[in-house]
Design goal:
There is one protein chain. By secondary structure, the chain is an alpha+beta fold. It is 35% helix and 26% strand. The protein contains 13 helices and 20 strands. It has helices spanning 8-15, 17-36, 64-67, 331-337, 351-368, 371-385, 387-402, 404-414, 418-432, 440-459, 483-498, 505-522, 527-553, and strands at 86-90, 95-99, 104-117, 120-127, 135-142, 155-156, 160-162, 169-178, 181-190, 195-204, 210-220, 237-242, 246-250, 261-265, 268-272, 276-281, 287-295, 299-306, 310-312, 317-328. A nine-stranded antiparallel beta sheet has the order 6-8-9-10-20-16-15-12-13, with helices on one face. Strands 5, 11, 14, 17, 18 and 19 form a six-stranded antiparallel beta sheet that branches. Strand 2 and strand 3 form a beta hairpin. The longest helix has 27 residues, at 527-553.
């Protein structure tokens, strides 16, 4: 935090610039997040959406701009009066509920990831059928004749399935039949995997050919409103990846204004949350139409459907396949599932820096077995890497501090004549061979690295429920006793005392207030982020003190 410019006001800004950058960025993030997610509150109880993608014609290729952007069509009437049953599935990674209505996943919990609820912790619900956290997956078949969709009633063989101790794969089949069409929809769960395979076996028992399309979509309620003090700049919305267009975000509020309609072979469509993601992945060699829709409520729909029909000859069978990823945003898991899926771990525009930082952080944690110590050691490595730049900054600061008495004398001599004072200051800099920007430039180089690390800590699901020491049991949650924010404020105050003093009394008072303001601001930051700031401040203080002692001794 070396003073750079020559005016007293600008010097004040330079002394606090890293913290002001962080404060300004956080305020902008809060305002942007609030604006981007401004939407009517979701009702507590709602009926399941009935929107189904429009069926392309069998004789004419689907036109993306017309088909995907068109309003959802009503499916053939289903026996909605019939009672649906829930099939329970237990694996090592999932606890799922599949309704025989549509044979769709209506609830999916992750037992390895807990969340507080009613005073105790339960498995995190990634998919949920009702309320402000509503998040559904729906998939089915379309055609000129009746095919099963999310309103159709299937038959289940059993009401409970469990992946046994020595079992690697668990298949859960559902059957639907109407007229000469029989469909067997099978979910395949694999041990240790967050990927769910969905296969539709279509049997044509009649005497004429049929054509069929597959669709797979997510339905999401508007993200619940949060208070300003726990609103993080996290993207919650739709995302698309294709080999041609690469990774794209499609925010929920923008869907009505900019409807999605993309035809591609390969890729995926997803709904991204803070630490988790649900992705629908078609076979890589099958052309599909990616689309989104806005249903009343509102409810946001994003998915894909076949761009070309599959013909089932009389007496023949065919299989249509899709995949789902429903789990945590762990880069290693996402990379192994589909190209580009790891980009849902959103590090923003500094991804090129953030990904290597996460790689180093993960390898340090593999040695320490503690993410808190990994954060501290990574911060130490970064400070060592930038030590030559920091040393140059601190040397410039020490020289500036030594010139404070002469600068004060110049201010007293020239009084209110600011131009004369500035000229005298510049002459003093030239005489002492001091570059006023010498303390600024090294810090500017480091800022992108520190911002990238901020995003790594904010986006890493590994920090969720990760303990550090003593009272800190979750590095992704605020410090419950506010010890780390207080230490951060104290370290900031020590840095202020080591910096050259401001000549203007008002500016000195403002500088003394800043640690208090930032302490209050950091009270609601995740403990892992505050730990990083405390470590960085303490190391900066030690570096600055060491450089100043070396300069005194020389």
């Amino acid at each position: 935090m070396t003073p750079c410019p020559v005016s007293p006001l600008k010097k004040t800004m330079n002394n606090i610039r890293p913290f002001l950058y962080a404060l300004l960025a956080a305020i902008l993030f809060v305002l942007w997040n609030d604006w981007e997610h401004r939407a009517p509150k979701a009702p507590q109880q709602v009926a399941a959406p009935t929107g189904i993608p429009v069926m392309p014609t069998a004789t004419t290729p689907a036109a993306p701009a017309v088909v995907a952007a068109a309003p959802p069509a009503k499916a053939a009437p289903a026996p909605l009066g019939a009672r649906a049953a829930l099939v329970t599935v237990h694996t090592d990674t999932f606890t799922a509920r599949i309704s025989t209505r549509g044979a769709d996943l209506v609830r999916l919990s992750l037992p390895d990831y807990e969340t507080p609820r009613h005073g105790h912790k339960t498995a995190y619900d990634l998919l949920s059928p009702q309320g402000p956290a509503e998040f559904l997956n729906q998939n089915g078949l379309l055609g000129h004749q009746a095919y099963p969709n999310q309103n159709s009633l299937y038959t289940a063989r059993h009401l409970a399935y469990t992946l046994g101790a020595g079992q690697k794969i668990l298949r859960v089949p559902f059957t639907w039949q109407q007229g000469h069409i029989r469909v067997t929809k099978t979910y395949t769960f694999t041990r240790g995997s967050y990927v769910v395979d969905v296969a539709y076996a279509v049997d044509n028992l009649g005497s004429r050919a049929h054509t069929v399309y597959l669709y797979n979509q997510f339905v999401h309620a508007p993200p619940p409103k949060t208070h300003f003090y726990n609103t993080a700049p996290i993207y919650i919305g739709a995302a698309l990846y294709t080999p041609e267009r690469k990774y794209e975000k499609h925010p929920f509020p923008a869907m009505a204004r900019h409807p999605l309609s993309v035809t591609a072979s390969g890729g995926w469509v997803a709904v991204s949350q803070h630490y988790f993601v649900g992705a629908a992945i078609p076979p890589p060699d099958v052309p599909v139409i990616y689309y989104d829709q806005v249903l009343p409520g509102p409810r946001y729909v994003v998915g894909y459907k076949s761009a070309q029909p599959v013909t089932v000859a009389p007496g023949a069978s065919t299989v249509l396949q899709s995949r789902l990823f429903l789990g945590p945003k762990k880069p290693s898991l996402l990379k192994a599932t589909a190209p580009g899926l790891a980009l849902t771990v959103d590090y923003g525009w500094l991804t090129v820096l953030a990904q290597p930082l996460y790689w180093v952080l993960r390898h340090i944690e593999s040695v320490t077995s503690n993410w808190g110590w990994a954060i501290i050691l990574l911060t130490v490595l970064i400070k060592l890497l930038f030590f030559p730049l920091s040393a140059a900054s601190f040397k410039s600061m020490a020289k500036m501090r030594a010139l404070q008495p002469r600068m004060a004398a110049l201010k007293e001599r020239h009084g209110a004549d600011r131009n004369a004072f500035q000229q005298a200051m510049m002459e003093l800099y030239r005489t002492e061979k001091l570059n006023p920007l010498g303390g600024c430039l090294p810090m500017v180089v480091q800022i992108p690295v520190f911002i990238a690390l901020y995003w790594v800590l904010l986006e890493s699901v590994a920090l969720r429920d990760a303990p550090f020491v003593f009272w800190i049991h979750n590095l992704a949650a605020p410090d419950p006793y506010f010890v780390l924010p207080i230490l951060m404020g104290a370290s900031m105050l020590v840095q202020q005392l080591l910096n050259p003093a401001m000549l203007d009394p008002t500016q000195r008072k403002v500088m003394m207030i800043m640690p208090v303001l930032f302490t209050g601001f950091f009270l609601f930051f995740p403990a892992g982020l505050v730990l990083y700031w405390v470590t960085n401040n303490v190391l900066s203080i030690l570096q600055q003190w060491w450089v100043m002692q070396r300069m005194k001794a020389s």
